[in-house]
Amino acid sequence: MGKTYDILNPELQAWLGHQKMFFVATAPLAASGHVNCSPKGGDTFRILGEREVAYLDLTGSGIETIAHLQENRRIVLMFCAFEGAPKIVRLHGQGEVVYPADPGYAALIAHFPAYTGARAVIRVTVTRISDSCGYAVPLMTFMEHRTVLDQWADRKTPAGLHEYRGQKNRLSIDGYAGYRDIGS
Q1: In degrees rounded to 5, what are phi and psi of residue 183?
Q2: N or C: which end of the chain has fewer CB within 10 A?
Q3: Read out DSSP for the chain?
Q4: Residue 1 confidence class, pLDDT cut points 50, 70, 90
Q5: 104-162, pLDDT tens digit by residue?
Q6: What is the residue-averaged pLDDT of the chain?
Q7: By the 8 A CB rule, do 48 and 54 touch?
Q8: Largest separation between any pair of C-alpha atoms in the chain
Q9: Residue 45's beta-bridge partner residues?
Q10: Which of these, 149, 147, 183, 142, lies nearest to 166 by C-alpha position?
């Protein structure tokens, strides 16, 4: 059934690029800390190389992924086929938060369409690539991407987003340092 891959080969790259959503999971090192799993959608995922991917992190009410990556870098991205042949692909790796003021941000953000609410790019060096059957994943029909988050961010303005991040994205639910306010 499941197998591992040495690289993101062209077949895997095409399959990943076709998926409409993915999930990101991280956890702090402390056994008492909360594991986090977040759904991601929109045009926010990119394959940068055979063992490197990135996704656009949009402003939201939580900051768990960023907080966990800043503590320990562990991350897994999971993609499920909700249409077509059943399949699940997991990309385990070491994640890095790249903020707007960081070197390399401009080059990374150029891979994505403009999103007003973009707060960082998460770059992942993939250390393990695996698939599994996905037989229990339901078949679902994609209608369209939601635009509510984009509309919310557009209404906030850059100053409003800065203020929101200062209020809501400073600490994780476990008290870990969250968004680094570096002028964005």
Answers
A1: 90, 10
A2: N
A3: --EEESS--HHHHHHHHH-SEEEEEE--SSTTSPPEEEEEESS-EEEEETTEEEEEEEP-S--HHHHHHHHH-EEEEEEE-SSSS--EEEEEEEEEEE-TTSTTHHHHHTTS---TTEEEEEEEEEEEEEEE--TTSPP--------HHHHHHHHHHHHHHHHHHHHHSSB-TTS-B----S--
A4: low
A5: 999 999 999 999 999 999 999 999 999 999 999 999 999 999 999 999 999 998 999 99
A6: 95
A7: yes
A8: 50
A9: 55
A10: 183
How far apart are alpha carbons 96 and 126 in whole angstroms?
A: 11
Tens of pLDDT, residues 86-113: 999 999 999 999 999 999 999 999 999 9
Structural domains for the chain: 3-168 (2.30.110.10)
Task: Outline where the chain has alpha helix (H).
Answer: 10-18, 64-72, 105-109, 148-168
Which amino acid, one-letter code, is at 124? Answer: V
pLDDT of residue 184: 44
- For residue 118, give the amino acid letter: A
